[in-house]
Specification:
single chain, alpha+beta, three-stranded parallel sheet, five-stranded antiparallel sheet, globular, binds zinc ion, Beta-Lactamase
Amino acid sequence: MRFQQLYYVLDTQYRILWVGGDWDEFALANAGEAARSNEVLSTSLFTHIVDQPTADAVVRLVDVVRASQAPLRIDYRCDSPTMLRRYQMTIQPMRDDRVLLVHDLRDARTFHQPLTHWKYRKDAHHLKCSFCCSVGTGPGEWTLPENLTGPHPEEVAYTMCPSCSGRVDEAISSLVANRSPKNPVTGGFGP
Ligand SMILES: [Zn+2]
């Protein structure tokens, strides 16, 4: 995963209409298969997201942007075994109920200790959060890769940790709250 910026447009069926930036690195790292940019047009975004909790979260984020016609930003991590990488995803409404998703690299640093290379396996014993990269280390316990006491698991199934699910909920409710008549996003100077 080396991309600096990646953007794509989705239609109302979550089909990819257009891609820009470093799609190839993104798709290869996430889907683990050759999903080159010229082959992804018109495919569903969900053929590139391997786990249901993450797919559901993206649907909810995209849908609230479409419904409110207001942009939304959320931070996430997408590490490599050697690099901690922080990204920000911005979802913006477009005409015709389309949305633009922009992923920007915000910060990248080298891990003091490189992590064990991991690969995705649907029924892997270990869970890994697709939003913050933490690893499920016990009942209700999630640990960021740099804080693991043992090696990073070699096989992981992606999901969302409770903390990141909470962040998604917060982002959605703040957008809904901001759009309420009491607190409109586009404040004016009154009548
Ligand atoms: Zn998380």
